[in-house]
UniProtKB/TrEMBL annotation:
Pfam families in the record: CAAD
PANTHER family linked to this entry: PROTEIN CURVATURE THYLAKOID 1B, CHLOROPLASTIC, PTHR33222
Localization in the cell: Membrane
Protein name (database record): Cyanobacterial aminoacyl-tRNA synthetase CAAD domain-containing protein
Origin organism lineage: Eukaryota, Viridiplantae, Streptophyta, Embryophyta, Tracheophyta
The keyword Membrane is annotated on this UniProt entry: yes
C-alpha cells in the first residue's frame, strides 16, 4: 500500500511537465485507468517561412542597387523616382483643387456609395427569390436582342445612335 501511495505522489508531482511536454507518460491511478488524456501539441512554425521574407527583402535591396548602378544615380534618387505619382492621380488632384463646393461633392460621393450599397442589397434579395432571376435574365436577353435589332444592325440606325450618344455627351460635359 505504501508503494502505491508513493507512486501516485510521484506521478502527481509531474502534471506541470505535461503542460510543456506532450510526450510525458500518462498518469495512472491505483486502479490502472487513465485519469486524463494528453492532446498532441501543434508542430513548431517552419523556420523557412521567416527566411523567405528576409530573402525577398534582400533581393529587393540588391535590385535597387543594380538599378542605381546602371542608371548612374544614387540609391536615394532611385527611391524618390519610384514615389512619383502617376499622371492620372495628378489630374484628379488638380481637378479636386478646382472644385469650389467640396462639401457638396463629398456629400454626393457618400450618397453614391450608400445608393450602390442599397442597390446591391436589393439585387441580392431579388436574386434569392425562386423564379425572379430566371425571368429577369430572359427579359435582359430579350431587350438586348431588341436593342441590337433596332439600333445596331442597319447603318442608318447605327449612325442615328452614335449621333444621340454624341449629343448626350456634349449636353453632359459641354461642347468641346
Amino acid at each position: 500500500m505504501a508503494s502505491t501511495t508513493s507512486t501516485s505522489l510521484s506521478l502527481s508531482s509531474s502534471p506541470s511537465s505535461t503542460l510543456f511536454d506532450a510526450k510525458a507518460p500518462r498518469q495512472l491511478s491505483a486502479a490502472g485507468s487513465s485519469q486524463c488524456a494528453t492532446l498532441p501539441t501543434l508542430p513548431p512554425l517552419p523556420s523557412q517561412s521567416r527566411g523567405v521574407w528576409k530573402t525577398t527583402t534582400y533581393c529587393q535591396k540588391i535590385a535597387r542597387n543594380v538599378v542605381a548602378m546602371a542608371t548612374g544615380e544614387a540609391p536615394a534618387e532611385v527611391a524618390v523616382a519610384e514615389l512619383e505619382l502617376p499622371e492620372v492621380v495628378k489630374t484628379i488632384q488638380e481637378t479636386w483643387d478646382k472644385v469650389e463646393d467640396k462639401y457638396a461633392v463629398g456629400s454626393l460621393a457618400v450618397a453614391a456609395v450608400v445608393a450602390l450599397w442599397g442597390s446591391a442589397g436589393m439585387i441580392s434579395a431579388i436574386d434569392r427569390l425562386p423564379l425572379v432571376p430566371g425571368v429577369l435574365e430572359l427579359v435582359g436577353i430579350g431587350y438586348t436582342g431588341w436593342f441590337a435589332y433596332r439600333n445596331l444592325i442597319f447603318k442608318p440606325d447605327r449612325e442615328a445612335l452614335i449621333q444621340k450618344i454624341k449629343c448626350k455627351y456634349n449636353d453632359i460635359l459641354g461642347s468641346s
